[in-house]
Design a protein that fits this description.
Length: 708
């Protein structure tokens, strides 16, 4: 910056600005004086000035008429030109440098300025009056429309519900998709839910389009009711996820979709858990991705995902960051568990973190004068998103019960310490929603219906809400959402595509918080090594079964059975340690004592011991490698090969043990238990891929498996 510019503090002229009353009068008088002086000095004919002024007056008159200015404004402007031209003509003739000429010019300037100010104020008042008149006209039209709506709905509520309302206001939604009626209930103890029982009947009586509803909700006090009426169906078409990926906070709400009035569904999960149900084809998976997108954008949240269906809910949020050339981009979620073992590890870690936070942050909560841990980017909240987690809680399988117990413990103990859950389920049934703790803690509820009626009991998902019907949201991605802040209403989930998921990951990579030191220490190595190659190989390598260490897979994996290994006589020569005679003696004595106390089987190749009575069978390892399996081996091999052929023929859809047993029953007589054992063996050695859990388990031959 130059010195001249830096020290220039004087008055700056804006030459593009228009003239005001003062500058306009000054410009007119100085111009007239200059023309008169030059004209007198050069003996210019005086009539030229009069002709120029007349032309200016005519031009401004035409312009004023075109702009529809007031008559007094046009007259004042024309008079200013003519008076200025007349003075200039007189001054050229008599001389402009006399006191009479200068005095008259000054008087003329003051008159022009005063007239300009007067007509300017008049034009402003006139313009404001035009605007006000237009607003009054629009208000009259709106008022007429509102009065018509009010009268129509007074009659409708009286006809359908038998209640005579006094409508106080009708508010039109800015989106143009409906309106809200604010009404006063009649005396006699009538409450708003009397009308809410007839929501569906009111919608039908109003002939609302499919996807539009009339929903009654509490008003400003218990004697008032609000009726939200949707007139435009916003549920039918897909709504793209917003392309703005700016930062969010747990405290200001996370967006989960759009209501029918065009407002965003904001949920607050600092203290609340969430429960979402949605059958197959309802758009639940897409909705889960929109939830993960909101959590990824939050600067004070770490997201842990459990999905026992091959981790499909979390893989799109992990794989872009694990791909080559990702440039150090962090995954969109902080931890992904796709197996029972990893999920158990994650839940145990969450419990340890919650308990450690309770002890370590007492001073911090005391200083903040709160019994809730202050969540921030430095101490982030952990959100556990568990796909089909409600089914885990309802399962009777022993392994699933382990997970269920830990999920319930997290929900029970970790609210104040900033660990909350988002559970999903395939349906709103009594078995899924039967747990009291889930119903009490999961106050944020979502039901994606997609028009499916089986297993969608909305009265269980939204107890107390009236008039909700699956038929009101028959479109994919549409349904009902209920929050403690806004009640239950229709909504539409955004449609998020894989390329948007990658964009969100890239945009938020440097925004994710780190687990605070106290929590990281409590989480231990299970959390610190969550991205170790051995634990994430299944995410990037389709041929690696979930949760299997690739180094073990290469070595054969499974139990290290010495009975199956060939002794290596050269081991000692290669420096492999061998046991000493004293160690062999101690080991032999130990085995003898074990056999004397617990022995239940004879050693391979030995007959029964003398005087040994029959020993009862006890459960234990089935070491088939040490047994003679020649009897019936041909039949077993044929049945096993036939089962593998059926599995291969099932293609990418896969099959289960029961289906294979039915196919082989006539020819081989193989039981379901035997085939289940074979399938488990094939899943362990990578021949088959296990998908799903419990009754939904199916197996796919590895040649047909395509990771989701």
């Amino acid at each position: 910056m130059s010195a001249t510019t830096s020290h220039n503090t004087g008055l700056v002229w804006d030459w593009a600005a228009g003239h005001g009353p003062v500058t306009g009068a000054l410009s007119a008088t100085t111009g007239a004086f200059a023309v008169a002086t030059i004209g007198a000095a050069t003996h210019m004919p005086p009539t030229w000035a009069l002709a120029a002024g007349t032309a200016g007056a005519l031009g401004h008159t035409a312009t004023g008429l075109r702009q529809k200015l007031a008559g007094r404004t046009i007259t004042a402007r024309a008079a200013s030109w003519l008076l200025g031209a007349g003075w200039t003509t007189w001054a050229i003739t008599t001389g402009p440098l006399t006191w009479a000429a200068l005095g008259s010019l000054t008087t003329l300037g003051v008159a022009i300025g005063t007239a300009a100010r007067s007509v300017g104020l008049y034009e402003e008042a006139r313009e404001l009056e035009v605007i006000a008149a237009e607003e009054r006209r629009i208000a009259r039209e709106l008022s007429a429309e509102r009065r018509e709506i009010a009268a129509e709905w007074i009659d409708r509520v009286l006809r359908v519900c038998g209640i005579n309302l006094h409508i106080l206001a009708v508010e039109m939604w800015p989106t143009g998709t409906g309106f809200t009626i604010d009404a006063e209930l009649p005396a006699g103890g009538i409450t708003w839910d009397r009308i809410a029982k007839y929501n569906a009947a009111l919608s039908a009586d109003a002939r609302l389009p499919h996807g539009c509803t009339a929903v009654a909700s509490p008003g400003i006090d218990q004697g008032r009711v609000l009726i939200d009426v949707t007139t435009v169906n916003v549920l039918a078409e897909d709504i793209p996820y917003p392309a703005e990926y700016g930062p969010l906070s747990l405290h200001t709400g996370l967006p989960w979709g759009v209501r029918t009035d065009g407002k965003t569904v904001d949920v607050y999960l600092r203290e609340q858990c969430a429960l979402a149900v949605g059958p197959t084809g309802s758009g639940k998976t897409n909705w889960v991705h929109t939830v993960l997108a909101g959590l990824a954008r939050a600067t004070d949240v770490l997201t842990w995902v459990i999905d026992l269906n091959a981790g499909s809910a979390g893989l799109p949020w992990v794989r872009p960051a694990l791909a080559e050339g990702s440039g150090g981009m962090r995954p969109g979620i902080d931890w992904l568990a796709g197996t029972h073992e990893e999920a158990l590890m994650m839940l145990d870690t969450a419990i340890c973190v919650a308990k450690r936070r309770k002890m370590a942050y007492q001073d911090l909560m005391s200083k903040a004068n709160t019994d809730l841990l202050p969540i921030s980017a430095q101490i982030p909240q952990i959100m556990l998103v568990i796909d089909e987690g409600a089914e885990i809680l309802a399962s009777t399988d022993k392994r699933m019960r382990q997970l269920a117990d830990r999920i319930l413990e997290v929900i029970r103990i970790a609210r104040a310490m900033g660990i909350r859950t988002v559970l999903t389920a395939l349906g709103a049934t009594g078995s899924v929603l039967g747990n009291l703790m889930i119903r009490r803690e999961a106050k944020v509820r979502v039901a994606l219906t997609g028009g499916e009626t089986e297993g969608m009991d909305l009265s269980k998902q939204f107890p107390g809400a009236r008039g909700l019907r699956v038929e009101q949201a028959p479109y994919k991605g549409s349904g009902f959402v209920g929050t403690p802040e806004a009640g239950v209403a229709l909504f539409k989930a955004w449609r998020i595509l894989p390329n948007q998921i990658r964009d969100v990951i890239a945009a938020t990579s440097d925004r994710h918080p780190r687990l605070d030191d106290v929590s990281a220490k409590a989480a231990g190595p299970d959390y610190a090594r969550r991205w170790d190659h051995a634990r994430i190989a299944w995410m990037t390598d389709p041929d690696t079964p979930e949760g299997e260490d690739p180094t073990l897979a290469q070595a054969g994996g499974g139990l290290n059975l010495s009975a199956l290994r060939t002794p290596d006589p050269g081991a000692a020569g290669r420096g492999v340690e061998s046991s000493s005679p004293e160690e062999d003696r101690i080991a032999e004595e130990f085995r003898r004592q074990i056999d004397a106390e617990f022995g239940t089987t004879t050693e391979p190749g030995r007959g029964p011991e003398p005087d040994a009575g029959p020993r009862p069978e006890r459960p234990g390892l089935n070491l088939s490698a040490l047994r003679d399996t020649t009897t019936g081996a041909g039949e077993d091999t044929a049945a096993r090969q036939a089962a593998l052929t059926v599995l291969l023929a099932a293609g990418s859809e896969g099959t289960g043990a029961s289906a294979i047993a039915r196919r082989l029953a006539a020819e081989h007589g193989t039981t379901r238990q035997t085939i289940s054992g074979w399938l488990q063996e094939w899943a362990d050695d990578g021949t088959a891929i296990r998908i799903g859990t419990g009754t939904k388990t199916r197996y796919v031959h590895h040649s047909h498996h395509r990771p989701e």
